[in-house]
Every structure is written in C-alpha cells, then in structure tokens.
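Hi U.,

Before I forget, here's the chain from the pilot set. I'm dumping it here mostly so it's searchable later in email.
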Amino acid sequence: MTTHLDTSTSASAPAANGDDGAGLLPSPALPKSPASRLRWAAADSWTLTLRTFRHWARQPAALILALLFPVLLVLMFGYLFGGQMQVPGGGNYREFLLPGMFAMSMVFGIETTFAAVSTDAARGVTDRFRSMPIAASAVVVGRSVADMAHSVVALAVMVVCGRLVGWSWHDGLVRAAAAFALLLLLRFALLWVGIYLGLVARGPESLVAIQVLVWPIGFLSNAYASPASMPDWLGAVAEWNPLSATVAAARELFGNPGWGGESFAARHAVELAIAWPVLITAVFLPLAVRRFNRLDR
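Structure:
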C-alpha cells in the first residue's frame, strides 16, 4: 500500500520564502546547523515510522499472524515433541526451549523487514521518498524504529506465552532485563541484514529465498536441542552460530537449563552474544546505507 506524502513541505524543515517563478511552491530550505539537521532527520524519521504503524493498523491480519506464529512453534515443540527431548543436566524442556524461541522470534523478524523494504523498492516508493525534500536517513531509520517496536511487542507476546506454559526467570529482574537486551540487540543487528537484502532484491517475490536462508540458520543452533546431541562436526557449527550465543546467554541470565559444555563458546556465551551482533551490524549497516544511496532515482 503506497502512502501519499505531500512533497511541497518537509516533515520539519522550514519552507523557503519567495516563489520559483513557475507557480510552484519552492523546496524547503535545508537546515544549516548540525542541531537543526538532527531535529529535521528525527522528525522525518518519526513521520515514516508512523507511516508503517498506519499500515499495520489498516492491515492487522498480517501483523497478528506474525506475532502468533512463534507461539504456535512453542506449543508444537513444547507439547508435541517436548516429551521426547532430554535437557542436558536435567530440567524442564519448556524452560530450556523458551529462551531459544525468544531468539527465534528475533530471527524471524528478518522476513518482516525484508518484505516491507523490498515491496517499497519494487513499487517505486523508496525512489519517491529519495526524491522528496526529507532527510536522507529518514527512510532507513523510520523502518528500523518501526521494526524494533514490532520486535518489542513480539517479545512481550512470547514472554506471556512462556509464563502460561510454565517458563520463568530465576536470577532476578536485572539479569532478566540484560537477557532481553541481548535478544533485542540480536534483532537490531539482523534488522540491517533484512534492510540490505530487501534493497538488493527489490521485489517481495524473493521472500522464499530469505526463508530458505533463515530457517536452516535458526534450526542449526542450540534453540531446540543441545549441540552435544548432534554429530561432532554439526554440533561445532551449531555451537558457533551467532543465534546460539544469544540463546545460551539468555538461558544463563534467566537461570534456565542450558546445554553447558567446556568449549570457548559455552564459557563465553554472554561476550559472544554481544560480539556477534556488533560484528553483523558493522558489516551490514554500511552495506545497507551504501545500497540505499546507490538506488536509481
């Protein structure tokens, strides 16, 4: 759905005085001071964030399905397969599972970001925004703010689901808050992967290819099973999966059963849960910005 924006004025930049001699409204004057440019960019970014919120309000079915799909996976794995799963060191499988599902819901967010960005690019909406007198960063920042807000809601839904099936944190609210922060840090990093791939594909029909990429990465981790239960080579791959670092760190901070181990990845899960997202962001954020700046007008 394409949202009409008035191209005669910016979200926050003041209009220039005078007429252009052709009976058209002049383009707004660009702010000159760094503080004014920052306010201008923030206001334009918020305008485009609200655009996404309005899309979700008008088409709530897709949003609701995206929020409920991870819940379905919790019920399926927790109750349908959970009786056959053994937790290393003992413990309740659903308490083992939920931190993994929290992280998986962050990974699934790549699909939401990719679909939105690629659809706008394919329909020419992104090019239209780039031709408007708005801050160049507003399109990307507005998308990222909206998707991070969506991820906070998705995580809240998953926590409620977890509480209903018997999951809880056991090491205090501060450590639990740190675990949630690491989960959102992973989502922030993967957000730039979704933006970059969406700008490269420039078409929502490539979503299947993204799903083929996301699902193996998600399942080839410690989210559902311990790497110790896998063949040695496969367990090593799963252990060093960036998703596994966030899941292991969340289990440790929540005080939930974990897969343990004496490897470097097992002993430094929290550090890796910070390092991997920082590395992913450092790679894909510049790629996304450069790709956006090089789009054909």
